[in-house]
Design brief:
This protein is of the alpha+beta class. It has one domain: D-Maltodextrin-Binding Protein, domain 2 (3-Layer(aba) Sandwich). The protein is built from 3 helices and 2 strands.
């Protein structure tokens, strides 16, 4: 959770122009946002491999195949071979919304899920 602190330094994507990247397919939200980050930075990434899932990209990065973008939800703190960076891009943050129908009974399980989600 260090990246969530206001005083956490962030890096510019230009710091990684020499890296080979594991790119996540654009049909995945983070894959699409990754493309936008490179576009914003006016960088053409050196893509070593393209994968369909975040977890696959994460595992390949752990094995030294290349750099990738992942969700902070995958980080456990036990990753000994990886370095994590907070990026200077609005695309690096994702907001979630929950929609519920009006005037309908909401089960307690859903209410508890919403409380957990807000944390």
């Amino acid at each position: 959770g260090l990246h969530l602190r206001e005083n956490c330094p962030s890096v510019n994507l230009h710091e990684f122009t020499d890296c080979s990247f594991i790119r996540i397919d654009a049909h995945v939200n983070l894959g699409m946002r990754t493309l936008k980050m490179f576009e914003e930075a006016e960088i053409l990434p050196r893509v070593k491999v393209k994968v369909p899932q975040l977890v696959t990209a994460f595992q390949l990065a752990e094995h030294g195949i290349g750099a990738t973008f992942i969700s902070d939800k995958l980080v456990t703190g036990n990753e000994s071979t990886l370095h994590f960076f907070k990026l200077q891009s609005k695309q690096a943050e994702r907001k979630y919304s929950l929609l519920l129908p009006h005037n309908v009974y909401v089960p307690n399980a859903v209410i508890e899920f919403i409380k957990l989600f807000r944390q």
